[in-house]
Amino acid sequence: MKKGIVFMTLVLLLGMVPALSQAAGILTPIGSGHQPIQIRDHHVNVVINNGFAMTEVLQTFYNGNREDLEAIYSFPLPKSASLSEVTIYAGEREIHGEVLEKQKARQIYADEKSRGNETGLAEKNEFYALEFKVYPVPANDETKIRFLYYQPLNIDTGIGRYLYPLEDGGTDDAGMSFWTTNANVENTFSLNLELKSAYPVQDVRVPGFEAAAQINSLAEDHYNVQMQLADMSLTKDFIFYYRLQDELPGRVEVIPFRDDMAKPGTFMMVITPGVDLKPLIDGTDYCFVLDVSGSMKSKMGTFKRGVVKAMEKLKPGDRFRIVAFSSQAGELTRDWLPVTDASLIKAREMIDSLNAGGSTNLYAGLSLALDNLDDDRAANIILVTDAVTNTGVVNPEEFHKLLRQVDVRIFGFLLGNSSNWPLMQTVTQTTGGFYDTISNADDIMGKLMLAGGKIKYEALLDAEVKISGVNVSDMTENIFKKVYRGQQLVVFGKYEKGGNARVTLKANLTGADKTYTTDFVFPDLDGDNPELERLWALATIENIEAMERIGTMPVSELETAIKDLGLTYQIVTDYTSMVVLSDTAFADRGIERHNQTRIAQEQQARSQRSQQPVKNYRVDQQKPAFKFKTPNLGGGGGASDPLPGLVAFIRTALGGLRLNTRKKSNSKLGIINIFK
Fold this sequence. Notes:
It is a single chain. The protein has four domains: about 5-15 and about 280-435, von Willebrand factor, type A domain (Rossmann fold); about 25-245 and about 575-610, tricorn interacting facor f3 domain (Immunoglobulin-like); about 250-275 and about 460-570, Sandwich (Immunoglobulin-like), CATH 2.60.40.10; about 645-675, no CATH class. Helix 2 (about 300-310) crosses helix 12 (about 645-655). With about 675 residues, it is of the alpha+beta class. About 20% of the residues lie in helices and about 35% in strands. The chain is built from twelve helices and 37 strands.
């Protein structure tokens, strides 16, 4: 197989807008024979500030049943999001959460429930959702649930994206028994979002909510979005895009936290390379790998239209294959077909004949896709899936073994909030690719352009981040097989004490070694961002889980490590849960209030940040690490730039949707403006 040529990308799904099925963020009675619990109000408060976002949710429910109930609340917490606070309002009383070892938390919840006391239990349900039980939900009365979480946000090719998930992915078959059709907010759904950026923001978008959202530009780096809707159905994700000013320099940012001279500090380093990556111009083969399992059933209409439109844009000289999989995999085309009018008509007939059903054998689909690749031709393998594999080979370690045997790059775009991101993470990390999750409410054009820009350009190879001068440890990730155009490197770690430090990024570009360095200072004390400790711990846990999935860490070591991190930093994991009790119950049981202490510190920091201008944590202003600017949507310029063809492809694949372009004086190309 030709090195660096095969691209496995889930681009096709970006052309699909599937029908909505289930809602998230509802409270459902456990047991049968009860009428649905009503959603009275749903309020969301979001603050985006220097690389991470805080999301606070407050919902009011009404139990119209004649008896008190136990109910379950499910919410598709975004990947790498750390649950910090859970509060249940029982009448005038508030009960709060502390993270304990899972079995202990479950036992306490059961004990408090048996006594008739107010209690709750928050647990992680694999990759599907955060679930917590609530007892009692009083009859003919209101119950309020509040929770708060933090998540890191990356800037990709100058575009930031925040998602508030409201649509359930419909892939958790075991949990479907809990869902009801009552997903409507009777009174008010409101959302308040504040963006504070260290760099000028050119524009913002809220696709699908343009008419409802009020967007206020308070400054070039400060935006506020307010939205209030009556009688809203919680079935469509809210997505906020923000676009940084074009032509920003490559940069290194270091966000620290150290509140005690006797303890190590925590940092988040964000490296945004400004490198001149050249476009790749090669003919390609296209293998379309289509998930037609039962979980794709509601998506088949737009699924088929998207595939057909994509195929119609293939050029003479290109070739294609079509692989479909559910319980098993099969090749519809039997071999590579040259692109002709006749072959495209045949392909359309094949796709039109597909029906969804059965389980998901992703391994079979990938295995068949990797067969019969031509070493002398570039190949794009286009996969459409939610990756929720449930038959055949399901062990991530086996996927790892399969993909180690071939030289492929996998670019993963996962459809839905319940997609199997741990499996896709294994797949992409094995191959040196990357992945992204896609909501049905996403700006499809923008996502496709970002993916296309990466696929069509060369990448930095074997990138390594090193920090010297100051003792650093427990870095979450410092080696990257490939760094793609517009991609940020985000590294969490610990530092022993303050002092002068140097960060070095080494990589290979077009056969030549490249080195980028900058000097900076770790502060002795900086208490502005205590949330970083939870984010570091969660990133560390995800790395440990990734090692276990490929067989490089024993389960026994994994459990101990994750449990210790979960308890120390108050994080809900596979081995820890958050039990919600009254202050009296915590005191009677002798449970120390570690989370209460963390919450108080985080709340104080949030309050202080809200009253101050955004802080710029760039550390390479005096001696920039990169002499080039960061990539933007305008591409690299020049006659060989692939973006004009990509624009045409997008127009066709999306059924003629209009793209807004504008000319830029220093380029022959128009900048594709997805921000109208």
